[in-house]
Structures are given as C-alpha cells and as structure tokens.
Design goal:
Layout (H helix, E strand, L loop, with lengths): L4 H18 L3 H7 L4 H10 L18 H11 L6 H12 L2 H6 L2 H13 L4 E4 L15 E5 L2 E12 L6 E7 L9 E7 L5 E3 L13 E12 L10 H37 L1 E2 L2 E2 L4 H29 L5 H26 L9 H8 L10 H12 L8
Parallel strand pairs: 1-4
Antiparallel strand pairs: 2-3, 3-7, 4-5, 6-7, 8-9
Amino acid sequence: MLFTEQHEEIRRLVRRFIDNEVNPYVDEWEASGIFPAKALFKKMGALGLLGIHKPEAYGGMGLDYSYQAVFAEELGAIHCGGVPMGIGVQTDMATPALANFGSDELRREFLAPAITGDMVASVAVSEPQAGSDVAAIKTTARKDGDDYVINGSKMWITNSTQADFLCLLANTSDDKPHLNKSLIIVPTHLPGISFSERLNKLGMRSSDTAQIFFDDVRVPQRYRLGDEGAGFTYQMLQFQEERIFAAANCLKGLENCIQQTIDYTRERQAFGQALLDNQVIHFRLAELQTEIEALRALTYDAVEGYIHGNDVTLKASMAKLKAGRLSREVSDACLQYWGGMGFMWDNPIARAYRDTRLVSIGGGADEVMLGIICKLMGTLPKRQK
C-alpha cells in the first residue's frame, strides 16, 4: 500500500492530538473507569478525525479506507486500549452501516453529528447469551403502527453510558435467523431504556461498558437502516471495517511494548550485564517485531482489497485472528522480561497485557475467525457449512 503526503499529514495530525489531548490524561481516565467521550469526540470532530472515511455530504472527508487505516494505526500510540476502542466504535463499528444503508434523513439526523462529535454512537449487537454467535440474539423489534416496539437486552456495550444513539441489531420477524434481523438506530433518551452500572472489566478500564435493557421502547420504523430482514448481512459487512480497524490499531501499541521493553532491559542489570544482552531476550524481541511487520503487511493487504471493492472477509478475518494472538504473545513475552515490575498494576506492559486480551474475544472470537477462514478455504465438514 502506497502512502501519499495526505496520508502522512493525517498521521502527524493524529500524533499531535494524542500527545496533547489524550496521553496526558490516560492514567486519570483509567483510574476513574471512563474517558470523557463527548468532550474528546467534539475536539476530534473539529479536526475532521471522526469522518475520514465518511461521505462529504454529511461532513466527512470522503477518503478511501487506506486513510482510515492510517488513523487506526496511529491510535495505537495511545497509552491504553480503552480510548482507541471507544473511538473505533464511533468511527468503524456503530456508523459504517448508517453511512452505507441509512436514508438521507437518518444520515443527516445521526451520522452528521457523529462526524462532528456532537453525538456519541454505540453499536448494540452482543447479548448475555449471544456474543460471537450473532444469529442467536433474542432482542425483538415488533411492528406497531408506524413504530417498532423493542424488548430485550444488550451486553458488553462500549460507549453505552455516554451514547446518544445505538446502532441496534434486533429480530424484526420470525423468519430464519439470518433473514429475520434488522439494524435500527435507537436514541438512548427514549422511555424504556435503562443501563446497568458500568461493568468491572479486566482491562480496557477507561472505556465505559454496560448492559442495556429495552422495555417496550418505541422507535419509528423510519429509523431502520436499509431493508427489513437485511440486518444480519449489514452487520457482517460492518464487521469487516471493525476487524480491519482492530488489526491496524494493534500495530503501534505492540511496537511500543517492544520498545519499552528494550529500554527497560537495556537499563536493568542482572548477573553482571544488561538483561537485553542475553541472546534469548534480544532474539525473542526481534522475532516479535518480525511478526508485527507480517501482521502489518496482511492488514495493509486487506485494506488494499477493501478500497478496490473486493470481498476481504478472508483477509480481514485472518488479520483479526493474527492481531489477537500476537497481542497476547507480545504482551506476555514483554511482561516476562520486566519481571516483578511487570506484575505491578500500573506498569504499561501490564496494562497492555490486560487490554489486548480482548482482541481475541471482541468483534468475533478467535474461534469464529477460524471458522470463517475454514469455510472460505472449503475445509469445514459439510454439516457445519
């Protein structure tokens, strides 16, 4: 993938923003269990950073996804995982289907303010009994006049307690599981919506996550995205951007883990020499950096296919799988070389160890990625196809 000066300008803009507006406050946000999405997104919206890949007609830059991938990669320089995840929900998880399938009226009402940072968006798919198994969701949206009446609950919803609207997947008929779902924009101020306390997570501590309950929530049918019953398909397409974003977002953070470990092991003395002078350590770090470059090449290849309109399900799934597994491998190996210091809660590698564990779970678990890859390779048993 070839980068232009415009790509590099976006890199520089994101770096400056992170250095000035994000990293100085990360420790505070991690301690409080939430980052100020409304204030931060407003600043990002003023710089155009929430609409890089979105249509110009609604305030976006109208650029292809290679520019969004650069944005996602640079967000990896944030000193935690929760903030970039919250940003990614706004740009690559809750709004792609709205941008691609929403009516002009819906896009003006919800997409445009999401791009300017005047609204916080959240995607509501997972449920207590249906995480990676999207077809198994139970939340319903039944027609009543010109409205849908929504009942059910959603679980592990990022940005939920600060969100102005949800991109919600619900069953709108009794048809087959892949044909009975629709994506619906649901404003969070409506009667019948309630939230649990913020969930106490292992990692991603600065990201607010909660369960959402829907009790006869009434939403106009015009808030549906695209065709009724096409929601499962739309969500699978939306997952493509989510998975590419996740892979790209890992790269800088993993490189930072390695660089911080190099710096620490160069200074730390044991048995009369710097830890880094042990071949087992500097060879291992070299191997891990090589793996990161391989992930970068795979991710860029998926982006290249995506911007040319190709079906990138296979490569996006591979990149997501590799990103999750490599995140675990890098953070675990680096933490080992920090020894007892790495086991301290406030250690940056310990934070990465906790935060990156989610990459193998969220947006489709590793096992789901493997199932997709096997299906596209034609290696699944017939009963599973």
